[in-house]
Amino acid sequence: MLLVAGLLVAMGLVAGYMEVSERADRMLALRQGPPAAVALQDFSHMRNTGPADEVRVFAEVDLSDPLILPLRGSDPEQRAYVVPLFPVSAEGAEVISSQIQGGDGQSAEVITDMAIIAQDKPPALGVLVFILPAYVETVRDTSMLLAERYGEGRFGEVVELNGESTSASAFQRMIDGAFAAKNLTLIDGYLAIAPYAEGRLAALSAPRVTGSHRILYAVALFLVVIAAVVSLREGSARRRAAANAAPRPPAETIYSDFPSSDPRFQAIPTQEEIAQAHKVNAAPKPIRFQLALNWLGRQAGAAQIMLRNRRPHREDEAL
């Protein structure tokens, strides 16, 4: 029990530390602003991820044919809205350059490096993942998922995405199957983005329960159940031990009659007298007195018999 209590306290401290750390990251992200936008093909987790796992990329997407994947085990039923993210083509880079006016030097340099070798159908470098509310089948207004829309590129609409770098491992197999059905490929180590659908300020300000918190809560619940089971077993074992250690009633005393031929044994109480002696305390006083007289009479009779059987002492025998 002490071990379980210690583990629960440690998990509570870890959960509290993680919550404070994540809140601090979100506050820092709000204070310093979003990271600089980069082309999807130029994205680096080390260089281009801000506090609270915030990312901001340019990509080309086809919003007309999204993937709607059911989330297994969700109650109520939920779905994931998934869109492949393709690299920015040379045409897409020109569209972005023509619409961004008076950008800072960093933005101009990023746009200059966004052109890639033209391909008919390049592999997807990432996915946009949005968990739909319960019982909602699709997204009616896709603008809520995009930070900016620029125009058409070679592989789809050129957009800017701002959101949190996340993981799609929970439905990775479904993504692979859906991509194969559409004759698309997805690179290893792809970028998964959960967009700020309600706006950056709301997403970074609202309290939330992350996946790590859910894991900690599940483990804590498991430990509580284990502690309850162990406590019940220990209590049952103690009760059984107490029942086994309870004093047993004394066994019935077996009496045996001594031979009465020898006068020396006549003073020993008989079985009936011993049984009556156990009841003396509960017997009335007259009965006690009578028992005492009987015992004295037997003692006197035994003494007389012993005196009669004693050999006479003669002086000549002494000589």
Distance between the termini: 91 Å
- In the sheet with the most strands, the strands line up as 2-4-5-8-7
Low-confidence spans: pLDDT under 50, at least 5 residues?
Answer: 102-110, 112-118
Structural class: alpha+beta
Share of helix, binned: 40-55%
The number of helical segments is 10
What characteristic shape results from the CA principal axes? rod-shaped
Count the domains.
2
Mean pLDDT: 75
The strand count comes to 8
Order of helices and strands: HEHEEEHHEEEHEHHHHH
Outline the biggest β-sheet: 5 strands, mixed, barrel
Rg calculated over all Cα atoms: 48 Å
Strand content: 15-25%
Notes on the protein architecture:
- The protein has 319 residues and is α+β, with helices and mostly antiparallel strands.
- The protein has two domains: 33-208, no CATH class; 263-311.
- The chain is 43% helix and 17% strand.
- A five-stranded mixed beta barrel has the order 2-4-5-8-7.
- Helix 1 runs antiparallel to helix 7.
- The radius of gyration is 48 Å and the shape is rod-shaped.
